[in-house]
Amino acid sequence: MRNAREFNFDGLVGPSHNYAGLSFGNVASFNNVKSASNPRQAALQGLAKMRALAARGFAQAVMPPQARPNFRMLRQVGFSGTDGDVLAQAWREAPVILSCAWSASPMWTANAATVSPSSDTADGRVHFTAANLNNKLHRADEHVQATRTLRALFANADRFVVHDPLPSTPAFADEGAANHTRFASAYGAAGVEFFVYGRVEFDPSAAAPKKYPARQTLEASQAIARLHGLDAARTVFAAQNPDVIDQGVFHNDVIAVGNGNVLFYHEQAFADEATTLDALRRALGAVDADLAPVRVATSAVPVADAVASYLFNSQLLSKRDGRMALVVPHECRENAAVSSYLAELVASGGPIDELVEFDLRQSMRNGGGPACLRLRVSLTDDEAAAMHQGVIMTEDLYAQLVPWVERHYRDRVEPRDLADPQLARECAAALEDLERILGLPGLYDWS
After folding, report:
1. Is it the case that residue 182 has pLDDT exceeding 90?
2. Would you place residue 2 in the very low, low, confident or very high pLDDT band (cuts 50, 70, 90)?
3. Does pLDDT of 312 surpass 80?
4. What's the pLDDT at 32?
5. How high does pLDDT run on average in the chain?
6. How many angstroms separate the CA atoms of 160 and 173, rounded?
7. Known catalytic residue at 175
8. Is 435 in the active site?
9. What is the pLDDT of residue 361?
10. Residue 25 region, left (φ>0) first, then alpha (ψ -120 to 50), else beta?
11. Which of 100, 332, 372, 427 is catalytic?
12. How far apart are the C-alpha atoms of 145 and 109, rounded to whole Å?
């Protein structure tokens, strides 16, 4: 077994952070539609989280924001003229489409891609597949820059493979790592990859939600497993409970999270809880590991409280002593049922013995918690040395990014600001400056 660490690549909130309420099925996003946002505060909250975890010795890196607005998409659907003309016309004729072009959703890097470490893949390289995110217009173009960014960060073809996204069709609807996790005795050991899907495209008889869309298909998950060269004996596919999707659990990471050999999950997370756990146990047995499930009963935390607090959209981090810390948002403390449960959890003597709390209010109001903000990438020492070093969170990088945010970000963005060409110019200037800070010239395609 090789020495390896899990890097968390946190999405750096972009300078156009706004609340458009575009994601039907994401209750928090929908509830805050068209309210004023604070991009500066959002970015600083995210940076504070990255810095604090890096200071504790966790491997932490930055995923750069995507360029906004998406002028290419606006022109593709018929708006023309100068950039200012395009924004004005879209504001008059199709403000929802304009909001899609300004979407802040790339900050949730868990949706950027699915990642398989080299210890799981047939060719011994780290594999990435950028998610096509074709369920929503405001996310359907993200894979273009996500693929470009991943290829800039992981350019060494001897160590890394960045696949093109799956075909952008409902059959291969893919939402990335938000519906994927990995279990292993150690990050450098052979592990079990766990894919959770919401619907089956080619089986109309399969259970599906009735109110909100299921965003991940079984077919997409199976395709990624093939692309990554995963061992079928160490790959598990499980159906999400359609009833909890209809309660606002739009991704599996809103109702379950895993790390090491621990699965922290709500009893209603899966369509068939017993079969899912049995499949994981058998697959882990193939790599001499035991599953350690931490089951949260509905009687302790109703699904509505789990969704409101984003209890499961938290990060499970392995500490040096072998125990785990759970990174949670402030909202978990403010919810009585969740706060009471967490106090019992850390006192229970189980694998999770510490809570680490952050103020991520700006992200939470837009529908994403700690787990949404990060993409997990397990890397050996040699692989970590081969990736682009300029995005690794250090005190020096933090000291550069904070004044960058303060220099370029507004402290208030309202819906009418999306028609302002000056905001678009400010965003472009910020990202051009960021390319220099991160040492990634040409990261953005400004053509």
Report:
1. yes
2. confident
3. yes
4. 52
5. 94
6. 24
7. yes
8. no
9. 82
10. left
11. 372
12. 12
Neighbour-count burial of 82, counting CB atoms closer than 10 A to its CB (0-12 exposed, 13-18 middle, 19+ buried) = exposed
Domain range summary for the chain, segments of one domain joined by +: 4-68+103-438
Q: What token pair was written down for 141?
A: 């173009």
DSSP letter (8 states) at residue 416: G
3-state secondary structure at position 413: strand
Q: In what order do the strands lie in the sheet with 160-163?
A: 113-116, 126-130, 160-163
The reply to whether 251 belongs to the active site is yes
What tokens appear for 146 in the block?
């996500």
Please tell me the distance from the alpha carbon of residue 379 to that of residue 188, in angstroms, as a whole number. Answer: 8
Q: Catalytic one among 142, 175, 193, 383?
A: 175
Q: Note the CATH architecture for domain 4-68+103-438.
A: 5-stranded Propeller (3.75)
Looking up tokens 């020492």, which residue turns up?
Answer: 381
Amino acid sitting at position 322:
G
CB 391 within 8 A of CB 153: yes
The predicted-structure confidence for 15-63, as pLDDT tens digits, reads as follows 999 987 565 554 454 455 567 899 999 999 999 999 999 999 999 999 9
251, 266, 383, 408: the active-site residue? 251
Task: Give the Cα separation of 319 and 262 in Å (integer).
Answer: 13
